[in-house]
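Cross-posting from the modeling subforum.

Setting up a comparison between two proteins and wanted a second pair of eyes on the formatting. Protein 1 (sequence, then structure tokens):
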Amino acid sequence: MTDISEVSEKAKAWPFEQARALLKRLKNMEKQGKSKQGPVVFETGYGPSGLPHIGTFGEVVRTTMVKHAFETLTDGAYETKLICISDDMDGMRKIPPTVPNPEILEPYIQMPLTRVPDPFGTHQSYGEHMGAKLCSFLDRFNFDYEFLSATQCYKDGTFDPMLLRALEKFDEIMAVMLPTLGAERQASYSPFLPISPTTGRVLYVPMKSIDPARGTITFEDEDGTDVTQPVTGGMAKLQWKPDFGMRWAALGVDFEMFGKDHQDNAPIYSKITRILGATPPQQFVYELFLDEAGEKISKTKGNGISVEDWLAYAPPESLSLFQYQKPRVAKKLFFDVIPKAVDEYLTFCDKFHTEPLERQVENPAWHIHSGLPPLAPSPVSFALLLNLVSAANVEEKHQLWGFISRYAPEATPETHPTLDNLAGYALRYYDDFVKPNKVYRGPDDKEAAALKALSAELKAWDQPVDSDTLQTLTFSIGKSHDFDNLRLWFQALYEILLGQSQGPRFGGFIALYGVTETAELIDQALARN
């Protein structure tokens, strides 16, 4: 019997490729006498200036997939944990557009987000409010993670050893950073950003002097006076690029993924980590999502779709699949991709339980469900449900079940909750995206003749209602009526009968909607013309 850890060593799925690279990194560290102490740490970062978004979900779900692949590959030989850290000590550069009473936040510009009052009135600070939002968001998907606040790490001493090391290595860090900056920025740059003792703001000022022995920095405060204070205890933070590398070193991060917008800076993060005496983590760069027009999705532009948008029309597993597939390829993320993602997810789940172990670990469903995909989540595809809603003109889920029960008598809302949810999603998706764009057309003479023939065959149908047999019948009708390109015949069926240019296998539609009902639908279309 093949062992799954043995299969994992050859698996081509990208989470296993990353897991093997991570294991190689750990083995190399052991050879260098730097054996991993404590758990293998997987990290994701979160910018709390805005709400968690689809990119946040993507980083955590993909990192979770790599973590599970690593645990499988190593057969539990290493303890692991996932850290989600909120960069809540960053200064608030501008007032978020979504907050109530934004004017009350104006005095707090450039203060750490954990010193900015919570305009929603639920927490002590805006940073804490957004951290709670992140945890609530992640808990919704049952992620297994440890939440860290950057502010807390700066204040409670977690970062102190590496902050003091960074002060000792100040000149080396400057040597890395200065070549990346323009002349004007070089003149005022410091990797340390002190917190003003008078205003509480994060200050972007040059250092007048540093004292590694005492662990202090001297700078000019906003009131013009020189101030000397420690870099520890939350009295200072690092600029974001040195902070990235410092955090890797301080938390012992072994794996982190980030978007392509970080790719050029990744060597800088790694250099900082090495300067601080640590080994940079295994890194994975993913491509960013594009909108329908091929533009990069931006929260500022509002040209993307949110997690909430997606989950209004499809189950979360379909979004996980979309995140899993080709992470290093830029993909368009807009509402039209949802039905395909849902049906691909259902197909992968159906295939999984008949595949050998070698294929199972390559199946996205294995990674989405941490090795335990559900059995046959739905006997009806999402595309078929959408076409059923279109043809049957139904508005309630129980009306859809009238058709579903005839097509799959073994299924009920209780035994097939995924299918029950899909029925609700289909109704919403149809109303919002299909119905407004439906355009029926009439048949030409050849199409009308073929439709009449199909209607007659269906009215005379006395065989079992089987989607494959009905598909063959539809195929033969098109062929006998001189459709050299049968795709045009099937396209005509959908354009004439359902007002859209494509759909699932028509035999499956007939079986679900009903043989007699489909004949009536054809007759109505011919009469309408």
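Protein 2 (same layout):
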Amino acid sequence: MKINIFRLLLIWIFFSVSIINGQTASQLSVRDFGAKGDGITLDTKAIQNAIDECSSKGGSVLFPPGKYLTGGLELKDNVDIYLSNGALILGSTDVKDYKEHQPAMKSYNDIFLKHSLLYAEKVKNISIRGEGTIDGQGASFRVTTKIKPDRYRDRPYIIRFIQCENVKLENVTLQNSAMWMQHYLACTGLTLRGIKVYNHANQNNDMMDIDGCKNVLIENCIGDTDDDAITLKSTSPVLNENVVISNCIVSSHCNAIKMGTESTGGFKNIIISDIIVKPSADKEPFFGTPAGTSGITLATVDGGIIDGVIISNVKIDGPEIPIFLRLGNRGRKHTESAPTPTVGIFKNVQISNVIATNIKNIGCSIMGLPEHYIEDVTFSNIRIVFSGGVSKTRIKNDLPELEDAYPEGNMWGILPSYGFYIRHAKGIKFDGITISTASEDQRPAIMLNDAEDIRIASLDASVSNEANCLIGIDKSNNILVENSRASGGAQNFVSVSDADTKNIFLFGNDFRGFKNPAEQKKKGQVKLISNIK
């Protein structure tokens, strides 16, 4: 075979020049389109021209090292943005440099959120990659009013992609948004991999908001945010569906892992695993508390459904509440003309292999509504150490429903039980739960109120000698407690506080340390089988 030496030489020269210039032949440097990269000159037009050219010809938009000040940019089909190590995109601090976008798809956010640094709508095959950084300079858009929705206006997102397909972010650093960091609405085929987020510049500084998206993969991400961190929302009737989140490290002054609050469509087939929740490096929150409000929050309050959620292998350090599950009825419409949502559905959730330490004394809650139960939730291999320290005089057993309130794990204050408080729920199962308090707490470990078909197996808890019981039961039926024990001891292993409760079975438990196995309002409510006394 004859080799054309001259042709090979030309190819070698071409690739050598490309490498020397820091780009491959398919990369379009924004500097070639006039971007200065000096952090002073507004490079919006040059960058947008590079994006437009890339969309028509293919390839990548390259940001070499430098500081690129820009207003709003619009991504197009088949555009790959690559930020070199040392490249910094700076969002303009003048809202006039951002084009207003009102998407065709309607959602709750339309009434106040119009600006984005990077915007895309109904676009396919877009990506943002590299070792560089995007900084929204969000402190320049600090809130000056408490009036809704005015307090949200004129604060740009860094990223807002709507109804896009095949979206990918890899390895980039995102910081200092004026609003949510990144919002993906009704996107299909979304991958967030290896990104780093630091968002403490303003109020509403979420890490990520996945909103009615389908086929989503989020992995190996690190985030530290003032507001919610890994956040799944549903601000339209479109479901979040088929979502896998794994191997992430997150910190939040609010909720580290959250589904809701907005839940018009809901959440289906969600798997979250191998997550570390740790205190934020920032100690001065706009919202929440320095160590965070909750580790895991699942809430549907605007209609919608939670169905088929699996959460496993989570280490939680520091927040007020490790686990909060809520079915409420705020009933907020996603648009003014939409029908008012009915109460949603909350079912089929598994939470396992959770270790939570340095937790405050509020307690975990599983709270539905009368005649609208949270159903079929399983907790297994859970270990939580609460701070404790609550005396009998601080216990409030008559909690209001707060049906239409914003769902937050601390909304009732100190709960009647230090561990888990379960109300308006059925089909709840505990297996291998270890809960204790760092200082003496006179509340029961678990309380059931209007609960049915509950199984508590292999509970290992601490309880104060001054507590009335280990497990309190009120207006609840078909309860099985088996193979459980407690360090310390209370007046009663279980206490039934009303006469209508029935079918309470205690099997194979260790009653040593308790004065009575059971306190009953009516004879025969509690049946004892093969327990140790």
